[in-house]
Specification:
Distance between the termini: 50 Å
Oligomer: single chain
Structural class: mainly alpha
Order of helices and strands: HHHHHHHHHHHH
Radius of gyration: 18 Å
Shape: globular
Helix content: over 70%
Number of strands: 0
Length: 208
């Protein structure tokens, strides 16, 4: 995260996440790679990295995904595990992170910057998980964290669909179907998108 205007940076990242942090240090830590923190400590500065947050965020994310899939109608361990694996795989999380447009705010060590690892799926997915942990710790509420995570999946999936769906014969991938059905159909907040997709709108209205 660029340090010349930290407050503005934190505000922007929070806006992209759809969450306002009470303790901005949690967000900064979630965006801080271990190598960056080590370099700061070598210079006598206190700096904590994201590693522990990644572990916590992974666990919180798994719980939220299982709950959402059950709410969406999955009723067998096998189907839940299969769909959860699709949603939480490194590539999917990384692409969601990229779509938020906040990759530049990750604090990389100098060595990592030279290696140009900022677009590696593993790096972005790990940071996504760290952000989930930061929201969980800052809010102190599973339901708030759950709501933010749902919205993140919804926004990235719907945005992707707008570019790819051009006619009634176009098909969404299985991940898009799962999240659009739960997040759009059940709330009916994007009926214009539903009409284009020709799936969610019918589910809401009961039209044939």
């Amino acid at each position: 995260m660029r340090t010349e205007n930290m407050s503005a940076n934190v505000s922007y990242v929070g806006q992209r996440l759809g969450y306002t942090f009470k303790n901005q240090d949690l967000l900064v830590r979630a965006l801080t790679r271990k190598t960056f923190a080590q370099e700061q400590k070598q210079q006598g500065r206190n700096c904590e990295d994201q590693e522990v947050y990644r572990t916590l965020g992974d666990a919180v994310l798994k719980l939220i995904l299982v709950e959402m899939l059950i709410d969406e109608g999955k009723n067998s361990p096998g189907s839940i595990t299969e769909e959860k694996s699709k949603l939480e795989n490194r590539k999917n999380l990384a692409q969601m992170f990229q779509k938020m447009g906040i990759t530049e705010f990750i604090r990389f060590g100098k060595g990592e910057e030279k290696q140009e690892i900022s677009n590696q799926y593993s790096v972005l997915a790990e940071t996504f998980e760290a952000l989930v942990a930061a929201i969980h710790l800052d809010s102190g509420s599973h339901e708030i964290t759950k709501g933010v995570v749902i919205n993140l999946f919804k926004e990235t999936v719907v945005g992707h669909s707008n570019h790819q769906v051009s006619n009634q014969d176009s098909e969404l991938d299985e991940i898009s179907k799962t999240w659009i059905h739960f997040n759009v159909c059940n709330t009916c907040v994007n009926s214009d998108i539903c009409a284009i997709i020709r799936m969610c709108y019918l589910d809401v209205t009961g039209d044939n």
